[in-house]
Structure to design on (436 residues):
């Protein structure tokens, strides 16, 4: 019989993801042992309340509130508590004590990544985080390793499962944002504080992580332009639908040449945008995520799958654990972050995007000419997408698509439109992404 050495694993957190990681580790212990060439021993699970009711039955003797002692007795620490503190201190403590770390905590990485990676590099520890972006989807390792020799120009995707679930429900069933969010929370998709999801913070953290990896530069989350979905109304979803679009919360990370300086820089932004129904992103339903990566040599690549959920995300966590544990067996250094490019970060004011503006207007002759005049005065070129006469007599809804415009020019145009005597209201202004 083979005598396997033992690798001790300490788990911090037994919520939606942590409890599934513990279950899979315990249930598939023999299979994992053969795959790794060493035995994984789950030595403890740190939680806030050892007596709390949990969906998954975990051996009570493994539960502890003493996370500090647990990390000292672990070769690999898996952090799935979420939030910044005490997660940051515990991860730094684990690294300092000689442990490798696996985490799914994008808030921690987006806010303190450079500090954590530097600490890991200093002592030669591994810090892996496949679960931090895209749930079950392998996207971190492809960007960090597989595409490291290529030049990535753009990443466009849906990276938050909760908001995709909500927008999809609003689109397909007419559900309210609040009702759809309650279901997403029950299903374990939402963050402990769901404002992180609907406010776009979670997607912005993921965009910061993706942009840093893709462009080999450090993109702090504060450099990511962020708009959430809290302002998206049933009416906007409906008018998008009638014009052949669907509303999606998108993350976009691009390498761009700044018009003003001629210098190459990086733009990272998150906002709800209209996506044509013919675009593959429009077909991403429920809590699924999809990430398009455009690389110079590889061409366009698409990564698709479950973007949230306990067991799905546990798959990514275990993948990192197995990779690190194999290194314990075969030795040698693992991969490290490369952020040496130091590209300038371009804020949203320097970027041009396309917009769709929905106006409620008086249904009378000459309206279109007057509106076109407002756009022309502000130097924004227009491509009319749709005009529909609404149920109410003598009123019409216009959906107007602009060609690429800067945010400042667009804001001035919208303010002027709101003042126009033929415009009753500006119902919505949303960006359009994806070729029409
Ligand atoms: N849910 C998902 O679909 C995904 C989540 N993630 C990330 O994975 C991480 C975990 O998420 P999730 O499982 O949903 O989170 P949960 O809120 O469901 O679980 C958090 C767990 O951490 C424990 N915990 C929290 N604070 C402390 C503390 N101070 N001391 C000890 N234990 C603590 C909680 O203990 P107790 O049970 O006693 O309250 C709980 O078991 C987060 O970083 C999240 O962003 C990543 C991808 C997908
Ligand atoms: N709350 C997050 C969980 C996964 O990262 C999401 O909904 O995407």
């Amino acid at each position: 019989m083979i005598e396997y050495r033992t690798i001790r694993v300490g788990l911090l957190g037994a919520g939606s993801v942590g409890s599934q990681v513990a279950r899979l580790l315990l249930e598939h212990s023999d299979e994992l042992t053969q795959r790794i060439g060493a035995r994984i021993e789950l030595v403890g699970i740190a939680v806030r309340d050892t007596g709390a009711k949990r969906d998954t039955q975990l051996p009570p003797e493994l539960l502890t509130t003493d996370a500090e002692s647990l990390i000292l007795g672990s070769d690999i620490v898996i952090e799935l508590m979420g939030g910044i503190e005490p997660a940051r201190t515990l991860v730094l403590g684990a690294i300092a004590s000689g442990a490798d770390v696996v985490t799914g905590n994008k808030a921690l990485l987006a806010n303190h990544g450079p500090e954590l990676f530097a600490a890991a590099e200093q002592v030669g520890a591994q810090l892996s985080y496949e679960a931090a972006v895209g749930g079950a989807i392998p996207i971190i390792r492809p960007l960090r390793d597989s595409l490291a020799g290529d030049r990535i120009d753009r990443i466009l995707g849906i990276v938050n499962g909760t908001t995709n679930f909500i927008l999809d429900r609003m689109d397909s069933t007419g559900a309210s944002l609040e009702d759809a969010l309650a279901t997403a929370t029950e299903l374990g998709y939402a963050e402990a504080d769901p404002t992180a999801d609907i406010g776009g913070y979670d997607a912005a953290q993921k965009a910061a992580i993706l942009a840093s990896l893709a462009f080999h530069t450090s993109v702090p989350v504060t450099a990511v332009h962020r708009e959430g979905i809290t302002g998206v109304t049933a009416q906007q979803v409906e008018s998008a639908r009638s014009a052949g679009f669907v509303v999606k919360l998108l993350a976009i990370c691009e390498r761009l040449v700044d018009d003003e300086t001629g210098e190459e820089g990086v733009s990272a932004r998150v906002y709800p945008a209209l996506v044509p129904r013919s675009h593959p992103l429009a077909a991403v339903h429920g809590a699924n995520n999809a990430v398009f990566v455009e690389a110079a040599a590889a061409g366009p690549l698409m990564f698709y799958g479950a973007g949230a959920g306990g067991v799905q995300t546990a798959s990514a966590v275990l993948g990192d654990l197995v990779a690190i544990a194999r290194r314990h067996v075969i030795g040698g250094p693992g991969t490290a972050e490369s952020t040496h490019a130091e590209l300038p970060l371009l804020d949203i004011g320097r970027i041009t995007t396309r917009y769709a503006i929905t106006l409620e207007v008086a249904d009378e002759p000459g309206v279109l000419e007057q509106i076109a005049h407002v756009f022309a005065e502000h130097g924004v070129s227009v491509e009319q997408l749709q005009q529909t006469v609404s149920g109410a007599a003598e009123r019409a809804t216009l959906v107007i698509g602009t060609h690429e415009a800067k945010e400042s020019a667009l804001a001035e145009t919208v303010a002027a439109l709101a003042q126009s005597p033929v415009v009753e209201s500006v119902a919505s202004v949303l960006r359009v992404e994806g070729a029409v």
